[in-house]
Specification:
It is globular, with a radius of gyration of 26 Å. The longest helix has 29 residues. It is 30% helix and 19% strand. It is an alpha/beta fold. Beta-D-galactopyranose binds next to loops.
Length: 667
């Protein structure tokens, strides 16, 4: 199948903000369905995701189909004007499939064969699963292609969520084939994996195994290739179903729901190329302080995956989830605040898991749009109020969020950092990345995320806090961009290895040394709880303190901004700044305390010519969406318990405690 460019693909456009959720009518007697539909209309629901886990109901025995119930509910929804996001049900293979194919059950890294009774019980590389999934998808697509209510196809559910890496024999064969395709010769594989280390040289692809639990840590390159392979194996599953649906129903857009920023099993830069509209699921970690910052990050990442185009929030929760230690209910107003925060950052649809709270099963204590307690509830009233509010925001659809700053995000770095055996267990993909993101969030700067090889010309500031893997080409991308005037901020353990995981030699951070104007001879990680003082060498950045990390760093063109005055790095630069071509490159060779990190990132924004908002109360999120004709939608989201006054374009806008104001300025 030829790859369609983004502009050629079918577009998702309801003409208003999509509102609704996963609808599982098969869990309820049919008498409830008309009530459901009436309540959906009351709540302003205009889209539901249907059939996500319905394989066993649609194909109760192999090759025997029952679409009657689905026809009936689709008919009811259609009559009520509610559109359908129709799912292929392949995330829940039926019991008969498991019985006939016991060898298709996924196997864990330690060799445990996972049993039936949950969902996602399949090996992504199984030909039997591929065949069965293709058959039900073909039947479904044939039956509902062209149905006027079906406005979106939803392939599978959350690829890579429960079943992400399978270590069964079918996976071993598929992994070997994938490696043979990638490397062509086993010598090339040996070179890429550095198998001279620990005498792991392979003479044949058939000698290679998946990286199982082993006496010591498995070769990191083998581990990373297995993650690439596993992402690709799932992508093949997606493409197979997508292509079947596309052939049957070419004009209806197709998607699958990502979990951007929550799970990291898929290389979503690749996946995003394959969907017509990017869709995302996001759940708050209820007990986490300032969890709305994580929401913003996920939304910004999703928008970036969508190339700035509008996207769909396919799932979030109306209140508590059921899978965390303490499943804390959302407080009054939090539901709308969360939903509108996604809308602010580029979503054109706000959907929930799920419509009606289940009576049975694992998720019976998960919140829903219709709670167990029914409609005489605060939650239902908030659901209805949100629907009404979104109904008035249709002009937001299609507008864009503009960002002049970007953070490099790359699953290759994430997977390499996950391998362990690094200079400190404090090093992790999200550690610095979240610290940088939170700092900019508090400063009121909206950011995109970018792949390290992306065109950076639209950005004035690029942050690379966690770009451990840096290929020569990616370094060149940054080099050219800084030279022509960009401001780069990089943190420790960035630019360290190439895409095979081999260290760039000659001093750290090998790939970026010339851009940063520094050369590190040795890493000097700090111990947990160890805090060291930093002396200032720049009048703009006050002295502070730091934790986690230091380096035996030598200046090679850069100027020291802060210097360690104690600890293993005493006397060594901790933060540096380097003029490079027309641009500037900052390097943070430590984890500064909050106010120092703030000061450094503010100084970098100044270098980039980015004006940060002034006078904005703390804990207030302000994001702007802009229409093609210049209309502006300012979302002012008050995450505090106090009413606040936000300066906006010469006006003072009051935003009540915990509430959201959307200020519309039309041209
Ligand atoms: C999602 C999943 C839904 C539901 C939800 C509960 O990951 O797609 O089916 O399980 O979590 O929070």
């Amino acid at each position: 199948m030829t790859v369609q460019s983004a502009s050629e693909r079918p577009r998702f456009d309801l003409g208003s903000v999509a509102y609704g959720g996963d609808y599982n009518p098969e869990q309820w007697p049919e008498e409830i369905w008309p009530q459901d539909v009436a309540l959906m209309r009351e709540a302003g629901v205009n889209l539901v995701s249907l059939g996500i886990f319905s394989w066993a109901r649609l194909e109760p025995r192999p090759g025997e189909y029952d679409f009657g119930w689905l026809d009936r509910i689709i008919g009811l929804l259609h009559e009520a004007g509610i559109r359908i996001d129709l799912a292929t049900p392949t995330a829940a293979p039926p019991a008969w499939f498991q019985r006939a194919n016991p060898h298709v059950r996924p196997v864990t890294v330690s060799g445990t064969v996972l049993g039936y009774g949950a969902r996602q019980t399949y090996c992504p590389s199984s030909p039997e699963y591929a065949g069965a999934a293709a058959r039900i998808t073909t039947e479904l697509a044939r039956r509902y292609a062209g149905h006027p209510a079906v406005v979106l196809w939803h392939i599978h559910n959350e690829y890579g969520c429960h079943t992400s890496r399978c270590y069964c024999e079918q996976s071993v064969s598929a992994f070997r084939a994938w490696l043979a395709d990638r490397y062509r010769t086993v010598e090339a594989l040996n070179a890429a994996w550095g198998t001279a280390f620990w005498g792991q040289l392979y003479a044949d692809f058939d000698e290679v195994d998946v990286p199982r639990e082993a006496p010591a840590a498995a070769n990191p390159s083998q581990q990373v290739d297995f993650r690439r392979f596993s992402s690709d194996a799932l992508l093949e599953c997606y493409r197979r179903e997508r292509d079947i649906v596309r052939a049957a129903d070419p004009s209806v857009p197709i998607t699958t729901n990502f979990m951007a920023g929550l799970t990291d099993n898929l290389d979503l830069w690749q996946w995003a190329e394959e969907v017509d509209v990017v869709a995302n699921d996001h759940y708050l970690t209820a007990a986490q302080k300032d969890n709305h910052i994580n929401l913003s990050l996920s939304a910004d990442l999703t928008r970036s995956l969508a190339g700035g185009r509008p996207w769909l929030l396919m799932e979030h929760s109306t209140s508590a989830v059921n899978w965390q230690g303490h499943n804390i209910a959302k407080r009054p107003g939090e539901l709308a605040r969360n939903s509108l925060a996604h809308l602010a950052r580029g979503a054109d649809g706000i959907m929930f898991f799920q419509w009606r709270a289940s009576r049975n099963g694992v998720e019976k204590f998960h919140s829903a749009m219709v709670p167990h307690a029914g409609t005489d509830t605060r939650l239902w009233r908030e659901v209805v109020a949100l629907g009404a509010r979104l109904g008035k925001l249709e002009e937001v659809c299609g507008t864009r969020v503009e960002a002049k700053a970007a953070i490099v995000w790359d699953w290759e770095s994430r997977w390499n950092l996950d391998c362990g055996n690094k200079p400190s267990t404090d090093l992790g993909f999200r550690e610095r990345l979240d610290a940088f993101y939170a700092c900019l969030w508090h400063a009121g700067l909206t950011v995109d995320f970018v792949h390290p090889g992306a065109d950076l010309s639209g950005y004035r500031l690029v942050l690379a806090p966690s770009m451990y893997v840096t290929s020569a080409a990616w370094a060149e991308n940054l080099r050219g961009w800084v030279r022509s005037g960009g401001t780069l901020v990089s943190s420790y353990f960035t630019g360290i290895v190439d895409q095979n995981g081999a260290v760039h030699l000659g001093g750290y951070p090998g790939a970026l040394r010339d851009i940063l104007g520094v050369r590190t001879e040795e890493f000097l990680p700090l111990l947990p709880g160890q805090r060291v003082k930093l002396a200032s060498e720049d009048p703009g950045i006050p002295a502070g303190s730091a934790s986690r990390w230091a380096e035996d760093l030598r200046l090679d063109g850069a100027a020291a901004v802060l210097r360690h005055s104690e600890g293993p790095g005493a006397g060594r630069p901790a933060v540096t700044r380097h003029g490079f071509g027309e641009g500037t490159a900052w390097y943070l060779a430590t984890a500064p305390d909050q106010s120092t990190l703030d000061a450094v990132l503010r100084a970098a924004c100044a270098d980039a010519g980015l004006a940060l908002p002034v006078g904005r109360p703390a804990g207030v999120e302000c994001v702007r969406r802009v229409g093609a004709g210049g209309d502006e939608f300012d979302f002012l989201i008050n995450h505090t318990d106090q009413d606040v006054v936000v300066p906006l374009g010469g006006e003072q806008v009051t935003v009540p405690a915990g509430r959201v104001r959307v200020v519309v300025s039309t041209r």
